[in-house]
Amino acid sequence: MSLTLALVTIDASDAVRLGTFWADVVGAKIHLTESGAYVMLGGGQPGLAFQQVDTPTPGKNKFHLDFATNNIAVEEARLLELGATKMGDFGDSSFRWVQFADLEGNLFDVAIEG
Domain of life of the organism in this record (predicted)? Predict the structure, then answer.
């Protein structure tokens, strides 16, 4: 017997707002529960979900999402336009990535594919 990773669920103060941001980032459709307290993004495995919480977990997030692109400059401009905050450039000539924070401060990275 084995498990299949189905969703990565992120706690959110405003699940609909954060889910909408990430749907725009990854080009996915939003699926809402009736209450709007749980938002899932369609397409792809594992999926992303956002769960409404009353009290956000304090401190730095313990994990983050990593994305790959063939053009960091284009993605950086697009993410900033969507409302992400650039946290910094990292790496060296052999591997480079840019770190961002989403609308609620969750960190994520974008690196060159390959």
Answer: Bacteria
> Is the domain of 32 the same as that of 72?
no
Alpha-carbon separation of residue 28 from 37, 67, 94 (angstroms): 18, 15, 31
pTM (two decimals): 0.80
Along the chain (114 residues), what's the average pLDDT of each consecutive run of 10 residues?
A: 77 93 92 85 83 84 86 95 97 88 94 80
> Tokens 């969507």 label which residue?
82
Q: Which residues contact 62 (CB under 8 A, 6 or more apart)?
A: none
Q: Which among 54, 78, 96 is the end of a domain?
A: 54
Q: At what angle do helices 72-82 and 15-26 cross, to 10 degrees?
A: 150
Closest by CA to 106, choosing from 49, 54, 52, 65, is 65
Compute the distance between CA of residue 29 and CA of residue 37 in angstroms, rounded to an integer: 16
7 falls within a domain: yes
∠ CA 61-101-112 to the nearest 5 degrees?
105
59 domain residue, yes or no: no
